[in-house]
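Notes from the 1:1 (GR / supervisor)

We went over the backlog. Supervisor wanted to see one worked example end to end before approving the batch request, so GR pasted a single chain during the call. The sequence is below; no edits were made to it. Supervisor asked that the structure be written out right there so they could see what the output format looks like.
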Amino acid sequence: MDSKVVKILTSKKFFEIAFVVVIFTSFVFWAKSIILDRAASYQWNVFLLDLTDFEGDFTNVIGYSGSRDPYNCLYYTNLQEKAYPPLIYVFMYLLSRIVPIEEYYAADYFLNMYMDPKLLIMMMIVITAMVIAFFEAIRHNLKDTYGMKVLVSIAMLLTAPVFFSIERGNSIILVIALMTAFVFGHDSDNKILKELSLVGLAVAAALKISPALLGILLIYKKDWKAVIRTVIYGIVMFVGPFLFLQGGLSNIPLMIRNVQMNNEFYMSKWGLTLYYTLVNYGVPDSMALFKITGLASKVLCLVMLIAAFKFDRKSDVIMVLSLALIIFPDHSGYYNLLYLVPATVMLINEEKKYIYDLIALFAIISFNHLYRFEGLEGGKLDCRTSMVALIIYCIIITCANLYRAKVASGSKDDSEEKKESKLEESEN
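Structure output shown during the call:
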């Protein structure tokens, strides 16, 4: 391929423009389809259950939290749904004081809770604050002109996983903002910014647990003091909120029980796993397939994370970490695609790109587009196709980095041999 074409396709500007143009165009067609087709529009399926579970992650958790005993709460859903860490329950308990919670317990139903005007106003404030934090975390860490940073950040807001998470009222929007702040701030020379980024990771992990994996970035840097401080922050953020719940620390084994029940309930239902991808493409569904693909995903992630010690591009490290956050769990919901946001920002910022980075660009864009969400009925170009592309990309960058590390090591050995040879000649 012509070097000029390669240079254009691997330029930072091309990645930015391609992302912005496709996402904005997709949003326009999505909105047009909804406006023209109205209630019949397939495009409403960007939201879960066609809006019949509106803000469910927000209102349901308020209901689970209202008695300060979420891990024993049997209202509305079974215990497998009460598996979050305690921080979110403590916050939602405060919001439960806004509504007549006992009336919802009597009805054993929380889905219409958003109709309470006072709660609706508070929900709008909280979700708006999370969206602003999400937007600013992206805009602040992009490297380009102010206008381009704003365009890319707005495009990120107009993506399917973001719309989905806003409709659910899911805290992952805030979690991604905190993760992005950590990714770009953990190695900052500004001590205050660095410390805030460590606290941010601790809060993110206390909300969703899985972001704790990003702590491996500190291990890659051998920043052991930061590792210790982050662990301390994490313990405080994770264990401390238990003390505000009924039963205190005795809730820890109850949470573990509920998490296990959650994994068993959802493990083979749906999601962004390698298992469901193969089933979606016609491979016969079986428990053997589930176990094999689950083990293969975990081994693949572990190999990549170990190999990442040798990676020379930070964007590659963040990309394999993001992939691990998505495919390592046996169940991974659609909103987990937002774990790719820090990696997307990092890849766009990357000055040195390779032609194979176009695979990542394809995967990221196809994950995020709104129009024809999940493809047409029976279509194959959906988020699981994108997942396959992302897995292939991460395998490529792992092999490429290991190859470059080997070449660099060989060059270093050759230069040392030449030095020794010259030294011997001078001595003779």
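Supervisor's comment: The first helix runs from residue 3 to 9.
Batch request approved.
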